[in-house]
Amino acid sequence: MSVIAANLQDVNGRIAAAAQQAGRPAGAVALLAVSKTFPDGAVREAFAAGQRAFGENYVQEGVAKVVALADLREQIAWHFIGPLQSNKTRLVAEHFDWVHAIDRLRVAERLSAQRPAGMAPLQVCIQVNISDEASKSGVAPEQALALAQAVAALPGLRLRGLMAIPEPAADAAAQRLPFAALRALLGSLREAGLDVDTLSMGMSGDMEAAIAEGATLVRIGTAIFGSRPAPAPHG
Ligand SMILES: *Cc1c(COP(=O)(O)O)cnc(C)c1O
């Protein structure tokens, strides 16, 4: 078995154990394999091991990978999870199935307008700055509902839920607080009448805490593909 296949098995085991511990059904938590910085071959290896959803952070790298893996296009769900500038929306609208980090209406409007007519609506999540850090992206929690309502009205998009990247926390109990806050916020969107079902939260270091608080999708890179080189100046 390849290292990637073994890591995938391990991660799927961690997800299943965390779901069970939280009293949630097996299969309640989807695994998004974050392949940013790793070559096409790594994605093919993960695909061969059964993985079908992949996440990318950088527009050029991500689109190149979608194109290089065109033979598997119908079987893979490609998620764009990085920050997205409004001048780079078109390629994402044309190549991806999901976008996780919507935090401005302008970006959502462009994605909607640029989504090709023959494709299914782009599935999107709104990124919330749940730890309230000045430096991080994401909409303030108080503004999430208004943005969600505006995004839900766009014809080229299908609003699925919320995403967050909390600041690192010291222990499991502290990790759970921002995830609990994001879950509560999703509940308030539902109460306001929005049809949302996705909590995109949890990474290699905090997936158990996220699953305990209701994550429906965890975004895992390092635990599957290994550690990444220092961030490169991708676009
Ligand atoms: C890189 C990245 C991940 C994966 O992080 P790991 O710690 O490697 O699992 C998840 N979500 C986002 C938004 C990322 O940029």
From TrEMBL:
<dbReference type="InterPro" id="IPR029066">
    <property type="entry name" value="PLP-binding_barrel"/>
</dbReference>
<dbReference type="InterPro" id="IPR011078">
    <property type="entry name" value="PyrdxlP_homeostasis"/>
</dbReference>
<comment type="function">
    <text>Pyridoxal 5'-phosphate (PLP)-binding protein, which is involved in PLP homeostasis.</text>
</comment>
<comment type="similarity">
    <text>Belongs to the pyridoxal phosphate-binding protein YggS/PROSC family.</text>
</comment>
<protein>
    <recommendedName>
        <fullName>Pyridoxal phosphate homeostasis protein</fullName>
    </recommendedName>
</protein>
<dbReference type="Pfam" id="PF01168">
    <property type="entry name" value="Ala_racemase_N"/>
</dbReference>
<dbReference type="InterPro" id="IPR001608">
    <property type="entry name" value="Ala_racemase_N"/>
</dbReference>
<feature type="domain" description="Alanine racemase N-terminal">
    <location>
        <begin position="15"/>
        <end position="229"/>
    </location>
</feature>
<keyword id="KW-0663">Pyridoxal phosphate</keyword>
<feature type="modified residue" description="N6-(pyridoxal phosphate)lysine">
    <location>
        <position position="36"/>
    </location>
</feature>
